[in-house]
Specification:
The chain is α/β, with parallel strands linked by helices. It contains ten helices and twelve strands. The chain has two domains: 152 residues, HUPs (Rossmann fold, 3-Layer(aba) Sandwich), CATH 3.40.50; 121 residues, Riboflavin kinase-like (Elongation Factor Tu (Ef-tu), domain 3), CATH 2.40.30. The strands form two sheets. It has a six-stranded parallel beta sheet, sandwiched between helices. Helix 7 packs antiparallel against helix 8.
């Protein structure tokens, strides 16, 4: 997938394209339905399927107090778009200056001059330009002037007719329901960060862990223990993941994320970028009477996680 972080990076001969526009936070099932429709529209004319997205949630600029935590960072989002088969993505810097552009300027500079759009796919409530002054009717008018068609995409609902949304995914993850979140995402919910040195308590208990730096990309689920996959350098390991402050010990930072790679003794992951993909919630965090009781519970957790991930006992 071609990845552009500015209009200047787009080659003059790019396209012609079929474009859809949005935050695409999480690239969930609703987004994937949009991308599938985009491909259908682009195929007859061999148009370049293109996503125009933003480097941050526009609310972080327009109304920071209402802005939710992102489900994915930009790198994650681009990887998910690529896995969905998108040909190209333009990540626009959404700052105050961008938010104040007239809707006509947005269309001409982004869609017409840069992306050479022939089809633009949006939702019924799509708004663009300063203070959201542009709507679907204006987009159609501008499309007629500049040579592109506007196609409307209805919301995608789940089996119980609830609209699939990033908010719904976020609520599930905040409750620890990573299985439900995976159903809406169409993939396992994941986070990324660099492996750093911790207190090495897990090693003394017989369960060495990879501690993730607090500078995490992605939405961290609720505190607890999870069955997960730990991917480093392209290699995937079955893992027991722990999120929280481990109340059995004093002085452990809140929302510490660590993962024990099952059956991998002596694995050195320090300073490596790691991705942790959550499969199933196992239990909540709680205080134990001491290290021995905690180690016993960790053994029980590992046995359950082996069952979930299909890893045989050794």
């Amino acid at each position: 997938m071609l990845r552009f972080d500015s209009l200047e990076a787009i080659p003059a001969d790019f396209g012609p394209s079929a474009v859809t526009i949005g935050k695409f936070d999480g690239v969930h099932a609703g987004h994937r339905a949009v991308l599938a429709r985009l491909e259908e529209l682009a195929a007859p004319e061999s148009l370049t399927t293109t996503v125009l997205t933003f480097d941050r949630n526009p609310l972080s600029v327009l109304a920071p107090e209402k802005c939710p935590a992102p489900l994915t960072g930009n790198a994650q989002k681009l990887d998910l778009l690529a896995s969905a088969g998108v040909d190209a993505a333009l990540v626009v810097t959404f700052d105050r200056a961008f938010s104040e552009r007239p809707p006509e300027e947005f269309v001409v500079r982004m869609l017409v001059e840069a992306l050479h759009a022939r089809i633009v796919l949006v939702g019924r409530d799509f708004r663009f330009g300063v203070r959201g002054s542009g709507n679907v009717d204006l987009l159609r008018t501008l499309g007629a002037q500049h040579g592109f068609d506007v196609v409307i995409m209805d919301d995608v609902a789940s089996g119980d007719d609830r609209r699939v949304s990033s908010t719904w995914v976020r609520d599930l993850l905040a409750a620890g329901d990573v299985t439900g979140a995976a159903e809406l995402l169409g993939t396992l919910p994941s986070i990324r960060s660099v492996v750093v040195h911790g207190f090495h308590r897990g090693r003394t208990l017989g369960y060495p862990t990879a501690n993730l730096s607090p500078a995490i990309e992605g939405f961290v689920p609720a505190d607890g223990v999870y069955a997960a996959w730990l991917t480093v350098r392209g290699i995937r390991y079955p893992a027991a993941a722990s999120i929280g402050n481990n109340p059995t010990f004093e002085g452990v930072p809140e929302k510490q994320v660590e993962a024990h790679a099952i059956d991998r003794v002596g694995l050195d992951l320090y300073d490596e970028m790691a991705e942790l993909s959550f499969v199933e919630y196992i239990r909540g965090m709680r205080r134990f009477s001491g290290p021995e009781a905690l180690a016993e519970q960790m053994g029980a957790d590992e046995r359950r996680i082996r069952e979930v991930l299909g890893v045989p006992q050794q």
